[in-house]
Amino acid sequence: MAGRFAYLEGQSVRKKHKKKAAKAAQDSKQEPLEIVYIRKELLRGVWRQYKVMGGESVSELVEELLSEWLQQQKSGYTPEEWAKRQKKD
Known about the structure:
With 89 residues, this protein is mainly α. 60% of the residues lie in helices and 0% in strands. It starts with 17 loop residues before the first helix and ends with a helix.
């Protein structure tokens, strides 16, 4: 019997390394990730274009866009007013 029940037959079973266990404990302290569904074609197209423009991480791009959108919503400006205000800065 191999696999997860190998210990029942007296076979040696690999145990997690202390470093991996410590890293797992550290990771659990971080903010949990959320699953977001998006079409593959769209994501791949964005990635290709973003890479051409010199970008490195689509995740960072998404975070920046969502953060800017949230700031816009909190400010009460319309999208047009927000764009004009951003150009001035």
